[in-house]
């Protein structure tokens, strides 16, 4: 094909002979479709483009073709309109001969061809693998499927669903406890099997509904969504359906099938006895309800809910057009360019679509960050996980933002002419300053208020209480006797040890006359020494049964119902002697906050007890490294505290995240409780939002990279 001096002299190629035109509903935005059987793709066109294509003639120049069409339509057809339409047709591959010739088309195809690494980066999130062509099978089994979709059957399923939900609500505790029980490896396998079962019928629902309306279903297969397998059905042919109701039924058929399965499974669960069948019904019911109502119905991703909303609003290609409206709205809000809106919609529809696009952006941001985290945790090599995480964020989050900023740069000439540009630039500068300027702030950390010194009175051995010399609130001095106990077993052990010592001494004294004892002289001496050490330990325990105060203080937290003759177990705490030499505050700071607190910083301790007043504190010291265990049990998550820990039977409470211990002096007055749990609010080192985020990101990279 040759070209002359301008577009008007271009020789127009003919359309492909295999293309077919389909009429959609008269009230559709684009009432006509061009079907490309090679690519199995539909292209929407309006009435004007349809009229142009109806009278398209290949081999003519643009001016000649415009004159020919104007004569046929009895209205003006411009060469510019034809030229723009020809470019669109060429881009879609609908012309019999590509513009620029086959060599140009081949070079264009080669330029678009991606290498293996580029292909993987573009497609590892979603890869389709067609498995079989179900069209013949669907046509032969469609009468059976129609029986299950009859009004009588739908009414029966509806009643079963209502009855099943009612019966399940009567056994809600059992149902909810079963749900929690299956959060395990066994439950995961059960749900995987249930998902496969439900999704097979979900896809068959789409396929049978499309076939019912005369559509062709060319392929069914499996797709990998972030390497997780999911089933899919190609119902592209449903685009040619003229009725919006029919298209919505095809889109919603999968969810209707899932809800029907959920209704049957919930009803059966209420009657079946405990066992494998009841568990299977539970898996199928919960999987169906959740998938249908939470995932498939959501219009924010291109699942069934998206196509339902698209048909409900009568907007095909909803997301691309919504994003175009959002970009236009942002530019108009920031710069007031007064550019024409990409769509000729009412203001009400434009606002609705704009909010929809904004919701999709927020949802996608969270979704892509979640996918990036999944990709990171699925990789065994941490550095590879970080690399894939970065690629995910850069490609799906940073790239669209930078693309829009480049568009602003291309429009900089128009933008600078608008007065609103100065307002937007000023607001942007203020935001940058807010992010970059270090701001004074306070950090909050868990802590306890405790005496500087405290004596915990515990029984060294199982013993019987003989005397109680104190009660709660008594003031005692160092050396005062508090409790007297007696241990018959300890006395018996001491008596046995004394007898054994006397026998060993007797053998030692007669070794001159006894040949056996004379040969065992060293053994007897070692035995006497061992028994002496044992007796010394028993006498020390006996003395410890007379419990004395080691510090001056006040008796607190005395064991309830303590009385004479009561037996006390080994290690049982009887009371506390709280010293009167002041209090201190101890707690832990997470890794991301430890850099913000310095020795000498001032703050407040706020106790959890609402009637206890606040007290001023000052940081005395912060540990140089993270602690291996949380020594303060009041602050661990296993005891209701805010520090997440994993209990290790050998080590103790091991923190999930790095924690640094700090010590604070306080002006708190003596309190009735020996230990008060609360939080400490401390004046932190001024820090900008940018440096805070960067510091945390670097800390995470260093920690997670495994370096």
Explain what the structure shows:
With 707 residues, this protein is of the alpha+beta class. It has five domains: 7-113, Arc Repressor Mutant, subunit A (Orthogonal Bundle), CATH 1.10.10; 118-314, no CATH class; 331-418, no CATH class; 445-450 and 581-686, Beta Barrel (Elongation Factor Tu (Ef-tu), domain 3); 454-574, OB fold (Dihydrolipoamide Acetyltransferase, E2P) (Beta Barrel). 50% of the residues lie in helices and 19% in strands. The protein has 22 helices and 22 strands. The strands form six sheets. Strands 7-16-21-18-17-22 form a six-stranded antiparallel barrel. A hairpin with an 8-residue loop joins strand 1 (20-23) and strand 2 (32-36). It starts with 19 loop residues before the first strand and ends with a helix. The model is unreliable at 1-5 (pLDDT under 50).
Short recap of the structure:
The chain is of the alpha+beta class and 707 residues long. Helix content is 50%, strand content 19%.
Tell how many strands the DSSP assignment holds: 22
Radius of gyration: 40 Å
Outline the biggest β-sheet.
6 strands, antiparallel, barrel
The end-to-end span amounts to: 61 Å
Structural class by helix and strand composition: alpha+beta
Number of helices: 22
Number of domain units? 5
Strand content: 15-25%
The average pLDDT is 81
Shape: elongated
Strand order of the largest sheet: 7-16-21-18-17-22
Would you identify the regions where 5 or more consecutive residues have pLDDT less than 50?
1-5
The helix fraction, in percent, is: 40-55%
């Amino acid at each position: 094909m040759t070209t002359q001096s301008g577009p008007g002299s271009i020789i127009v190629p003919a359309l492909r002979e295999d293309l077919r035109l389909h009429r959609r509903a008269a009230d559709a935005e684009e009432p006509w479709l061009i079907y490309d059987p090679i690519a199995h793709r539909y292209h929407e066109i309006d009435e004007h483009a349809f009229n142009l294509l109806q009278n398209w003639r290949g081999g003519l120049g643009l001016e000649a073709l415009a004159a020919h069409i104007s004569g046929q339509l009895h209205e003006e057809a411009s060469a510019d309109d034809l030229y723009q339409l020809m470019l669109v047709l060429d881009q879609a591959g609908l012309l019999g001969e590509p513009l620029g010739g086959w060599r140009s088309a081949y070079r264009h195809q080669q330029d678009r061809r991606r290498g293996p690494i580029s292909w993987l980066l573009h497609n590892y999130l979603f890869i389709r693998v067609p498995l079989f062509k179900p069209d013949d099978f669907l046509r032969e089994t469609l009468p059976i499927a129609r029986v299950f979709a009859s009004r009588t059957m739908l009414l029966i399923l509806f009643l079963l669903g209502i009855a099943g939900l009612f019966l399940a609500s009567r056994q809600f505790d059992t149902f909810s406890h079963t749900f929690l029980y299956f959060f395990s490896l066994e439950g995961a396998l059960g749900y995987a099997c249930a998902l496969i079962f439900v999704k097979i019928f979900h896809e068959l629902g789409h396929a049978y509904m499309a076939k019912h309306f005369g559509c062709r279903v060319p392929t069914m297969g499996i797709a990998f969504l972030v390497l997780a397998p999911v089933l899919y059905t190609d119902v592209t042919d449903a685009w040619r359906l003229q009725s919006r109701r029919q298209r919505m039924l095809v889109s919603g058929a999968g969810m209707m099938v899932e809800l029907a399965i959920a209704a049957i499974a919930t009803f059966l669960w209420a009657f079946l006895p405990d066992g494998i069948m009841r568990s299977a019904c539970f898996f199928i019911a919960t999987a169906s309800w959740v998938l249908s109502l939470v995932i498939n119905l959501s219009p924010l991703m291109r699942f069934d809910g998206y196509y339902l909303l698209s048909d409900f609003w009568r907007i095909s290609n909803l997301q691309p057009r919504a994003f175009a409206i959002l970009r236009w709205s942002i530019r108009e809000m920031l710069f007031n360019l007064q550019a024409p809106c990409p769509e000729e919609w009412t203001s009400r529809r434009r606002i609705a679509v704009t909010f929809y696009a904004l919701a999709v952006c927020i949802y996608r941001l969270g979704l892509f960050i979640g996918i990036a985290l999944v990709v990171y945790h699925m990789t065994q090599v941490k550095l590879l996980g970080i690399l894939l995480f970065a690629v995910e964020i850069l490609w799906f989050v940073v790239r669209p933002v930078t693309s829009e900023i480049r568009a602003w740069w291309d429009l900089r000439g128009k933008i600078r002419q608008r007065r609103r540009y100065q307002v937007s630039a000023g607001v942007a500068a203020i935001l940058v300053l807010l992010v970059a300027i270090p701001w004074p702030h306070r950090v909050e950390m868990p802590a306890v208020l405790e005496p500087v010194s405290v004596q915990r009175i515990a029984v060294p051995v199982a013993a019987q209480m003989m005397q109680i010399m104190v009660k709660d609130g008594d003031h005692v001095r160092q050396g005062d006797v508090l409790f007297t106990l007696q241990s018959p077993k300890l006395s018996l052990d001491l008596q046995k040890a004394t007898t054994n010592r006397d026998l060993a001494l007797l053998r030692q004294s007669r070794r001159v006359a006894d040949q056996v004892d004379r040969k065992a002289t060293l053994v007897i001496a070692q035995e006497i020494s061992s028994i002496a050490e044992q007796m010394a330990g028993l006498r020390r325990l006996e003395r410890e049964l007379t419990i004395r105060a080691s510090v001056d203080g006040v008796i607190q937290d005395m064991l309830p119902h303590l009385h004479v003759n009561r037996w006390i177990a080994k290690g049982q705490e009887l009371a506390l002697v709280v010293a009167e030499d002041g209090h201190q505050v101890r707690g832990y700071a997470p890794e991301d906050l430890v850099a913000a607190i310095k020795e000498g910083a001032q703050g407040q301790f706020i106790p959890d007890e609402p009637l206890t007043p606040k007290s001023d504190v000052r940081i005395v010291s912060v540990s140089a490294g993270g602690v291996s265990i949380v020594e303060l049990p009041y602050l661990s998550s296993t005891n209701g505290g805010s520090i997440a820990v994993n209990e290790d039977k050998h080590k103790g409470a091991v923190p999930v995240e790095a924690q640094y211990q700090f010590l604070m002096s306080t002006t708190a007055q003596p309190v009735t409780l020996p230990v008060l749990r609360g939080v400490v609010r401390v004046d932190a080192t001024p820090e900008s939002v940018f440096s805070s985020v960067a510091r945390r990101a670097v800390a995470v990279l260093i920690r997670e990279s495994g370096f």
